[in-house]
Amino acid sequence: MDISVILLAAGKGTRMKSDTVKVLHPIAGRPMLAYSLDLAFELEPREILVVVGFQADKVREAFAETGSKVIWVLQPEQKGTADAVRCALPHLSRDPGTVLIHYGDVPLLRKETLLALLEEHKKGAFPITFLTAYLENPTGYGRIVRDGAGAFVRIVEEADATPEEKSLREVNTGITCVEIPFLREALDRLRDDNAQREFYLTDLAAYAVSRGLRVGSLVTEEAFRALGINTRKDLAEAERWVRRSICDRWMLAGVTLEDPRHTYIDASVTLEPDTRIGPNCHLRGRTRVGRGSVIDTGAVITDSTIGSEVVIRPYSVLQESEVHDQAVVGPMAHLRPGTVLEKGVRVGNFVEVKKSRLGERSKAAHLTYLGDSEIGKDVNVGCGTITCNYDGVAKHRTVIEDEAFIGSDTQLVAPVRIGRGAYIGSGSTITRDVPPESLAVSRARQKVIEGWAADKGKKRKKS
């Protein structure tokens, strides 16, 4: 499309009451600004300029993957929207054309709305066209002032408005189309003689009227999508809308969500058909879930890859892990970063795994910690087993070869290797390697004193 896009993202967002710049606050796992950038890319403009100011380096770093596709412009001092656009002018094409000015804190806006605004701008041959909306409570927004015939006269910011002007319900959303030659001319003539001592982009309307030019406008019926996020309350509302649209999209793609209102799927998550997700599940980051898997109630999965026909049972937590096909995890299991469960592995309740690989069909059913381990195929790890991987200075690895059997309440003091097919007796503390096909037992010899309990009972009665 033969347009340029300027995204304004320089403000701190004071009403957010945060140390983080507003446009980096996440919505469904992505920075707020990402949604406005996506929309800009969808329009396929000849150039995209993003004006940054507060925490500029952090904003640029968060979007480093855009490379040369985005021109980053610094507004050294936040002196208003017109000043921000003025900072972008040296980087803007010198050719005549249209520039769309949009904001980095409007994540719900749709492409159709922008296309309609551009069409209205082109059809009316206006030098500048504003997207407006009618609000029941317009407090905080610039009001659209029209003459008796309904023609656009000016935009007045609330701080500068009279009581009569404050009663107007048509507001400026801030989203604007403007012809580049007019923009260059008008910006040179704007002044900051207002209550905020800032240069307002909205003053372009009054300047156009003073030149005898017509100002265009388009009223959007979806005001909630076109207005910026200013507070944490606005952020929560936007999050609700984005997550609802994500859930709708996945359900239409063949994923079953048992309770979409209480399912939390980040925008970057990928799901395959016939996946079933229970209520109160959180799927975050770059998580991928294969066909036919079940993610049961309350699971929290972050940056993990889940294969096909996997069952994640209730209240399990997975972070940066791989779970291959037909594996079963949980309930209440914890897979920490670096965990790999191969096909058919079973990790049960209250099992914690960290930086470990479990081979096909191996299982650790319950109450076990496996850290820094390499576990082969068809291994049985009994209840209460611990790999003692940390000596207070360094981490060490435990290796358990194929078909080994680890009895309950075993401590494997790393570094140690359990050979193929070896058995470890329950209650053992293993500090040395165990050869294949061997039995290792490390426990005190059992002593039985017959009649001891009966004599003890008689003494208790006498006392």
Which key features would you list for this structure?
2 domains; alpha/beta; 16-stranded parallel beta sheet; UDP N-Acetylglucosamine Acyltransferase, domain 1; 21% helix; Spore Coat Polysaccharide Biosynthesis Protein SpsA, Chain A; 463 residues
Task: Walk me through the topology.
Layout: E1 3-9, E2 26-27, E3 30-31, H1 32-42, E4 47-52, H2 56-62, E5 71-74, H3 81-88, E6 98-103, H4 111-124, E7 128-134, E8 143-146, E9 152-156, H5 163-166, E10 170-179, H6 180-187, H7 203-210, E11 216-219, H8 223-226, H9 232-252, E12 256-257, E13 264-265, E14 270-271, E15 276-277, E16 282-284, E17 288-289, E18 294-295, E19 300-302, E20 305-306, E21 311-312, E22 317-319, E23 322-323, E24 328-329, E25 334-335, E26 340-341, E27 346-354, E28 357-358, E29 363-371, E30 373-375, E31 380-381, E32 386-388, E33 398-400, E34 405-406, E35 411-413, E36 416-418, E37 423-424, E38 429-430, E39 439-440, H10 452-462
Parallel strand pairs: 1-4, 1-6, 4-5, 7-11, 12-15, 13-16, 14-17, 15-18, 16-19, 17-20, 18-21, 19-22, 20-23, 21-24, 22-25, 23-26, 24-27, 25-27, 26-28, 27-29, 28-30, 29-31, 30-33, 31-34, 32-35, 33-36, 34-37, 35-38, 37-39
Antiparallel strand pairs: 2-3, 6-10, 7-10, 8-9
